[in-house]
Design brief:
Elements (H helix, E strand, L loop, with lengths): L1 H5 L5 E4 L2 H13 L5 E4 L13 E7 L7 H14 E12 L10 E5 L2 E4 L9 E2 L3 H7 L3 E8 L4 E8 L8
Parallel strand pairs: 1-2, 3-4
Antiparallel strand pairs: 4-9, 5-6, 6-7, 8-9
Length: 165
């Protein structure tokens, strides 16, 4: 967010945690930058109009829910993105057994860590095939794995028939 604001882009942010919004606002103020920040959930109706954004960026957020809620978030992203709008997301991939913390399974590909920094947070594990399926309304330009066990997806919202006159 700071990087984009420093380059003169109009920036919006949403976070479920009031603390996260406060930290971001303080950082923006320190750098004399502007952004429109709101407290809210990525998994509920976003407080933006249809076709509002040129791009949506989600870093290490989308996988913190059950697949049903993730699908709702994807639909909301599709709604607020302009046709051919860009998306960049990162989501958790399966952690190698030697690095796994204790966890409780909630369902297929879904678990909650019982220890560590993300204790109690729902996790859904993606793979490349699942990303392609869930983001079927996007032309996917690339999917890769970063050095910290996260999938990165860069895509462009397809122009849907309902958006054409």
């Amino acid at each position: 967010m700071i990087y984009l604001a420093e380059r003169g882009l109009e920036v919006y942010g949403i976070d479920i945690a009031e603390t996260g919004i406060k930290i971001a606002k303080d950082w923006l103020n320190e750098k004399n930058l502007q952004a429109d920040l709101k407290i809210g959930s990525f998994y509920e109706t976003l407080p933006y109009e249809d076709n509002f954004f040129d791009a949506v960026i989600s870093i290490r957020v989308m996988h913190h829910a059950r697949i049903e809620d993730i699908r709702k978030a994807i639909k909301e992203i599709e709604r607020v993105l302009k046709p051919r709008g860009l998306i960049f997301i990162t989501v958790r991939k399966r952690t190698p057994k030697k690095r796994r913390l204790k966890f409780r399974t909630l369902g297929s590909r879904t678990y909650i860590p019982l220890e560590g920094d993300e204790k109690g947070l729902i996790h859904y594990l993606f793979n490349k095939r699942l990303l392609e399926r869930e983001f079927k309304n996007f032309k996917i330009h690339n999917i890769w794995v970063d050095s910290e066990s996260y999938y990165c997806l860069l895509g462009e919202l397809k122009t849907l028939r309902s958006q054409n006159p």
